[in-house]
Design goal:
Layout: E1 2-7, H1 12-28, E2 32-37, H2 40-44, E3 53-56, E4 59-63, H3 69-82
Helix pairs in contact: 1-3
């Protein structure tokens, strides 16, 4: 199972990243646990300077942008291979 964290304060880009990531998880037919991290202190623990951020299995894979659907699928596949 993948552990996915969406880092951000609930801005439109953060919501879009969550939607796109959920679509990618569905397209791969894998199980994932989602968590929204909105607390600035907790976001800072991941050493990112710009939200939204995407963390998969504890590793920051994107920050400051919304990756394309194919990029998210690739990130998820990589995380599955590393698990």
């Amino acid at each position: 199972m993948l552990n996915i964290k969406i880092l951000g304060t609930g801005c439109p880009n953060c919501k879009k990243l969550e939607q796109e990531t959920r679509k990618a998880v569905t397209s791969l037919a894998v199980k994932a646990e989602f968590e929204k991290v909105t607390d600035y202190q907790k976001i800072m623990e991941f050493d990112i300077l710009s939200t939204p951020g995407l963390v998969i299995n504890g590793k920051v894979v994107s920050s400051g942008k919304i990756p394309s659907q194919s990029e998210i699928v690739s990130m998820l596949a990589t995380a599955l291979d590393e698990a």
